[in-house]
Amino acid sequence: MKVELKKLAVSEGISAFGAGDIEDLRQYFDALSSEQTEGLSYGISLAVQVSEAVLKGVITGPTRHYLHHYKMLNLLLDQTALKLTLSIQQMGYKALPIPASQIVDWEKQTAHLSHKMIALRTGIGWIGRNNLLVHPEFGSRIRLATILTDMPLESDKPKEQDCGECRKCIEACPVSAIKETHKDWNKKACLEKLKYFASAHSVGQYICGLCVKVCRFNS
Fold first, then answer.
1. CA–CA separation, 190 vs 61, rounded Å?
2. What is the H or E stretch that residue 145 is in?
C-alpha cells in the first residue's frame, strides 16, 4: 500500500515521500482536537522542491515571482494530498489531509500541526540551523504537506544527519536570527523581518527565502 501511495505522489511531481507512526505527536497538534485525530496514528509527509531559478531572484528579500511560486507549490502539495487521501479512503481507511500553508494563529504563527515535525519523524530530513527542515539532496529548498491516516504504514527511518560545518544560512540572515543550533533561533527577530518584507516588498505574506536560497546541502 505504501509503495502504491509513493508512486502516486511521485507521479504528481512530489520530490520526497516519507511515512511512519506519529501517535505520540498528536498531543502537539495546535489546532486539531484529539477527537478529530483519534485513530490516525500514522503520518505521510510530502515534500516538493523549490525552483532554483526562482530563488536566484531572491537577492535582498522575497519577490512577487517567489510568492507566486510558493503558492503554486502549496497548491500542488494540497492537490496531491487530496488525491492520496481519496486513494486511502478507497482502500477502506481514514485519512485527513493537512493544508501545506494555513496559519491558524497569526500571533504565534502556528498551523494545524508542524509539517517539519512529521517530516523529521518520517525520514524526509533533519532540522537545520535555520530551524527549517533540511533534505539531504534539496536542502531547505522544499515545501511540505502532511496526511494523517489509520492505514498502518511501515516507518521510514529518521535521518541521522545534521548541517555539519555549513553555516551559509547564518551568513545570509539579515537580522542574525539564525544561530549555531536551531534551538537558539530567534523567532521574534525573524517574524519582525518577515512582517517588514510583507509590506516593503509588496508580497503581503510572511515569507523571506534568503536562508532557503543558500541551503544547498548536497553542493
1. 13
2. strand 142-149
